[in-house]
Amino acid sequence: MKKSKLKSAALLAAVLIVCTASFLKIQDLTRSASHTDESSALTFSVLSDVHADANKLRTAIIDLYFINMDADAMFLNGDIVDEGMPEQYGRVKGVLEETRDLLPDIVIQNIGNHEFFNYRKGRNTLADALNYRTLYFQYTGNLSVYHDAWIKGYHFISLGSENANLKTGTNPPSAADLSENQLSWLSRKLKEDYEPGKPIFVFLHQHLKTSIAGWKGVVQDKELTDILSGYPEVILFTSHTHAPLAKDGVIQTEPFAMVNTGAVAFINESEVGPIKRVYKESQGLYVEVVGNKVIINGRDFARNEWIFSREIE
User: What is the CATH number of the domain that holds 223?
Assistant: First the structure.
């Protein structure tokens, strides 16, 4: 009982600190993004690449809570852990339980590539990959690496790699590998209760496009692009690259829109020379939906500031 009270007190203290910071930046919040919480039909956040960093995840959750205490959903879009190990899942689960009163009722956790990693073991056999998927299922409650949900009448579709970091084959170790069954499932789901013009939200940890040269995100990138191109209503949220939101924000070079989600644990800078990890940065998205209009807001959790606001209609 005493331990529980101490944890609650510590969380309350953290909340008060962030609350004060958010209050001091309230004018910045109002000026820097088009927030329409009161009239929004739907609001949700997208966090990715937590890599089991409990402190940064907690900070992001508290920050988002003070942006909107009544958000409808939160999506953790892959690389929830740095390695697919019980202690790392336990670390993330601990933060989600500790902050459950600050979280939306719906929290959806998608698979990335690091869920298939164990640095000491190296590359995977197919049996290893199955074990990593099973562990992911146990901790997230998902029954598959691809799944969908309807929230306030809007369709949310999560895709996920079925294998990664394999010893055999020629696929890049971190690229998403989507089976024919998954792609057929996606085609069926996109048709489900389809309404022309109404946004469809699709999630995949790995990217289709990035500003970082030479980085292939999806083995079946052409097949996936072809399917999504039949639905201009699709907004595809991808992660994986840790690219800064100020650089890779909203990409609209295909019939559908693509949105980079930033990264919670660290950002990759690649302007000059090799990729450099910047651990002081922590970024994610806060999304507002009003009818068929979607407002994507990039958030800097390290500074409690807005990075950009972009409307997709």
Answer: 3.60.21.10
